[in-house]
Task: inverse folding
């Protein structure tokens, strides 16, 4: 799906899904709509120069709107988790100031980074009238919530990294499966037909394989074989097996999970891959590691940092530190929630609205939620050259 032309409505913000566009009187001509228009949101009066937020409280209430929302963040967790939670809180406050204060009453609960506490807080929110739960960030808690039954359960917009999603529990963060699928699609759209998937063995391997296969099928391409590899041998065995199982693939996708892709890339290089006829596709997880010369020549689909630009300047001015992707995710979910509340009311958070196939556009780009709870994103397609990402295409998508 191509992002198409932007639709700018004569309001300070816009929600883009077909129903909201119809209700607001702003209709997209090309079928793609915006979850919000960060570029159109002006900094509210009195916002500039605000001080950095003080110590997080266990429970905070923001806004005075009629739609009750609960957000679960690890505000007092130690280390990186707590730091990211506090960034998300600042992003939430900015989004509420920009969009949500008159629409939402948003209660922020501190999970302390404890999965058990996060699960309990989520269940309390689900059973006490919240229309939407944003969070948790703890993966075990998100996975537990996804196992709970109940047709009347409000939707959960989970902020956990590497969460695959579940019915009514939506994965917000870009996952390796989606990055791999979009990267493969970027080459398939240019004519590549035969792909090999080398995926780190683990609980996410099946999800990666399924998403990549589905993505390739859209372009008439296919996975010739999927080989799971173990970190214990650096993927050398899988690379050897690939040579005996597949003749002349067009591309090899390497989904390395938590580990560095360097060992398996070294094994591929020993076989002349990448080369003139065989490309390598990486994922967003590669970028969690120092850029290795072995990454050179690989293609990757990942988020566009420039998408956060419209909110990044206001965020820095307000909180005196730069916005990152955690800020963008939190801002988008609060803005999306406020937009739905405005367009269709407190009871408008249905599967039909949230799973609208046209998707939403926010500060993390174009995305949509699937019925299985996974998310799909359209994102830039890059090639790694001289240790940097070089843009190949502005938008590629596995959907």
Result:
């Amino acid at each position: 799906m191509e992002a198409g032309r932007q639709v700018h409505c004569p309001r300070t913000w816009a929600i883009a899904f077909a129903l909201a566009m119809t209700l607001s009187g702003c209709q997209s001509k090309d079928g793609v709509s915006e979850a919000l228009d960060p570029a159109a949101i002006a900094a509210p009066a009195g916002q500039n120069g605000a001080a950095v937020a003080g110590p997080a409280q266990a429970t905070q209430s923001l806004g005075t709107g009629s739609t009750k929302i609960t957000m679960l963040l690890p505000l007092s967790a130690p280390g990186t988790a707590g730091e990211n939670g506090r960034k998300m809180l600042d992003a939430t406050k900015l989004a509420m100031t920009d969009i949500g204060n008159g629409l939402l009453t948003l209660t922020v609960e501190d999970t302390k980074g404890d999965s058990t506490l996060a699960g309990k807080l989520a269940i309390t929110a689900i059973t006490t009238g919240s229309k939407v739960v944003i969070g948790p960030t703890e993966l075990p808690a998100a996975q537990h919530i996804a196992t709970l039954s109940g047709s009347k359960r409000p939707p959960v917009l989970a902020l956990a990294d590497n969460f695959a999603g579940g019915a009514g529990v939506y994965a917000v963060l870009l996952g390796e499966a989606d990055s791999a699928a979009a990267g493969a699609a970027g080459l398939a759209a240019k004519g590549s037909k035969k792909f090999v998937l080398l995926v780190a063995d683990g609980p996410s391997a099946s999800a990666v394989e399924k998403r990549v296969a589905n993505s390739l099928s859209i372009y008439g391409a296919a996975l010739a074989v999927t080989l799971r590899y173990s970190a214990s041998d650096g993927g050398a065995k899988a690379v050897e097996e690939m040579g005996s199982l597949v003749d002349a693939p067009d591309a090899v996708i390497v989904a390395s999970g938590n580990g560095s892709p360097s060992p398996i890339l070294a094994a591929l290089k020993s076989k002349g891959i990448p080369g003139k006829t065989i490309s390598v596709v990486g994922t967003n997880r590669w970028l969690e590691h120092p850029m290795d010369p072995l990454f050179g020549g690989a293609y990757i689909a990942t988020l566009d940092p420039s998408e956060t630009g419209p909110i990044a300047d206001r965020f820095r001015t307000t909180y005196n530190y730069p916005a990152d992707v955690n800020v963008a995710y939190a801002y988008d979910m609060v803005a999306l929630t406020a937009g739905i509340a405005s367009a269709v009311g407190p009871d408008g958070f249905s599967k039909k609205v949230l799973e609208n196939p046209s998707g939403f556009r926010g500060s993390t780009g174009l995305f949509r939620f699937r019925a299985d709870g996974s998310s799909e994103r359209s994102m830039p397609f890059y090639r790694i050259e001289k240790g940097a990402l070089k843009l190949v295409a502005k938008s590629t998508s596995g959907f």
Residues 1-55 have pLDDT under 50 and may be disordered. The CA atoms of residues 51 and 193 lie 54 Å apart. The first strand starts at residue 59 and ends at 62.
